[in-house]
């Protein structure tokens, strides 16, 4: 059966304390609290800098058994190198501890900068380099230039890896890009960005990846019941066709993300791995 994993982008936000998080909840328990109410969370810190294996292990230990993380690829790869000559950087990314999540490792998210235009050759080369299993990822991680005490390069049990690409330049909204993504089995992120960036609904993998950045105002506005109903209907069709769905709310500024995520999760409860997670009534 297809699964819907509905969650949030990150979980450490000061304005959430005393609103979503109970006033006296220790910061170290925020991940546990959020993961009891949702089915997945994007790790965003990995976008800004390489994390440590100990952090990934801790995150895995403090979340429910059925929980998974999406991990955002580093901006050094996507925004500085702009996907070119990135093999060593990708090796370092996987060596930094991503594999320490074990079975809780979900899809890898690669968000491209708004200034990066579609170039078929570089995109093809990058997508073709990405590992498709944990064994392949471990082999690539073995090429790391990081110090040994900063790395985790063991694959554990072999599992498939999923990749999703979020584009932000209109030049990607062409059939050629969709065909490239489909050939590599990579999902094109369906991103709701209040009209700022392209909306691409083409399905190119065996799962769908959705990022909800704000209904009317980027990162700020919440989603109405009517809007959540529409998203639930659209994603329900994907699920009924046998494809898994990963959806993350990134409208964190006014503490809307966790509540909107729980609202969408309620609407898709028949497909969630834990139909009766805490916080369903809110």
Reconstruct the topology from this structure.
Layout: E1 4-9, H1 30-35, E2 40-43, H2 45-48, H3 53-61, E3 68-72, H4 75-80, H5 87-95, E4 105-111, H6 120-129, H7 134-141, E5 163-166, H8 175-184, E6 187-188, E7 190-192, E8 207-212, H9 225-240, E9 244-249, H10 257-267
Parallel strand pairs: 1-2, 1-9, 2-3, 3-4, 4-5, 5-6, 7-8, 8-9
Helix pairs in contact: 5-7, 6-8, 9-10
Task: Tell me what you see in this structure.
It is a single chain. The chain is of the alpha/beta class and 282 residues long. It has one domain (4-271): Protein of unknown function UPF0759 (TIM Barrel, Alpha-Beta Barrel). The protein has helices at 30-35, 45-48, 53-61, 75-80, 87-95, 120-129, 134-141, 175-184, 225-240, 257-267, and strands at residues 4-9, 40-43, 68-72, 105-111, 163-166, 187-188, 190-192, 207-212, 244-249. Helix 5 (87-95) packs across helix 7.
Summarize the structure.
The protein is α/β, with parallel strands linked by helices and 282 residues long. It has helices at 30-35, 45-48, 53-61, 75-80, 87-95, 120-129, 134-141, 175-184, 225-240, 257-267; strands at residues 4-9, 40-43, 68-72, 105-111, 163-166, 187-188, 190-192, 207-212, 244-249. It starts with a strand and ends in a 15-residue tail after the last helix.
């Amino acid at each position: 059966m297809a699964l819907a994993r509905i969650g949030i982008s990150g979980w450490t936000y000061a304005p959430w304390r005393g609103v979503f998080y109970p006033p006296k909840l220790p910061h170290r328990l925020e991940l546990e609290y959020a993961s009891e109410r949702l089915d997945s969370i994007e790790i965003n810190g990995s976008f800004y800098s390489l994390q440590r294996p100990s952090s990934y292990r801790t995150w895995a230990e403090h979340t429910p058994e059925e929980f998974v993380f999406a991990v955002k690829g580093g901006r050094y790869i996507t925004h500085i190198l702009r996907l070119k000559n990135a093999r060593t950087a990708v090796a370092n990314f996987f060596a930094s501890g991503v594999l320490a999540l074990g079975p809780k490792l979900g899809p890898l998210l690669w968000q491209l900068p708004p200034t990066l235009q579609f170039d078929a050759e570089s995109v093809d080369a990058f997508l073709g380099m990405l590992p498709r299993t944990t064994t392949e990822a471990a082999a690539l991680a073995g090429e790391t230039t990081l110090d040994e005490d900063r790395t985790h390069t063991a694959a554990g049990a072999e599992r498939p890896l999923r990749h999703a690409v979020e584009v932000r330049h209109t030049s990607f909204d062409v059939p050629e890009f969709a065909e490239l993504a489909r050939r590599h089995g990579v999902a094109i992120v369906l991103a709701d960005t209040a009209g700022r960036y392209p909306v691409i609904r083409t399905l190119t993998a065996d799962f769908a990846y959705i990022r909800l950045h704000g209904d009317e105002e980027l990162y700020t506005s919440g989603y109405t019941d009517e809007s959540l109903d529409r998203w639930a209907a659209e994603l329900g069709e994907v699920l009924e066709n046998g494809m898994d769905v990963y959806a993350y709310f990134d409208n964190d500024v006014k503490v809307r993300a966790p509540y909107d995520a729980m609202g969408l999760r309620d609407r898709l409860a028949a497909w969630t791995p834990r139909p009766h997670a805490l916080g369903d009534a809110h």
